Amino acid sequence: MRHNKKGRKLGTDSAHTKAMKKSLVRALFTNDRIKTVEARAKEIRPDVDKIITWAKKGDLHSRRLAIAALGDKELVREVFEKVEQGQFADRQGGYTRILKLGVRKGDGASIVIMELCTEPVKKQTKEDKPAAKKATKKASAKKEAAKEEKAEAAEEKAEEKVEEATEEAPEAAEEATEEAAEETAEATEEAAEEEKKAE
Question: What is the pLDDT of residue 81?
Fold first, then answer.
């Protein structure tokens, strides 16, 4: 039974596994991204998160814990300085990203790229958030009925407007013809008066 032996074996004995994990974490903090096997990447992710959390605390005890975990004072100083400058300030955990590349030709092992998430976090707006609960069938049926009623009312209003416009159009035409007739009558009267004056 494997009591008190949590974690992956990674194909080696415990001392080799421990050294390998420390080496991978050190390489990740040095280069910001590494290419490795998926099982190893998933195994070192908690260690990386733990060191960044210590760096966020920033006290002497956390610094000494990080030095014990990494085994490199200069690298720990660099990590703590980056975090002090606000590199992971707006990120509450999840400091690493794993991108799958495919399988290795020789043994079919899944190869990944593991990198630190250094870009700022985008805050979700209300539109981006998914709906917490889906509407029930009754509620959706009521909404559809209400939409149909609104559509019918809008169509009736549009028809009424069209009818009013058609009714107003002949009246306007009649008014225009009456005005034109009055204008022509006035013009003929003026012409007759001018002729009388000329005589």
Answer: 94
Residue-wise pLDDT tens digits, 98-107: 999 999 999 9
Of 86, 116, 146, the last residue of a domain is 116
Cα separation, 77 vs 66, in Å, equals 10
44 burial via Cβ count (<10 Å: 0-12, 13-18, 19+):
buried
Q: Write the DSSP assignment of 60-112 as a string of letters.
A: HHHHHHHHHHH--HHHHHHHHHHHHTTTTTT--S--EEEEEEEE-TTT-PEEE
In terms of domains, do 98 and 151 share one?
no
The count of domains in the chain is: 2
Asked which of 85, 116, 147 is the last residue of a domain, the reply is 116
The answer to the question of residue 196 being in a domain is yes
Section 37-50 average pLDDT = 95
* Residue 15 pLDDT exceeds 60: yes
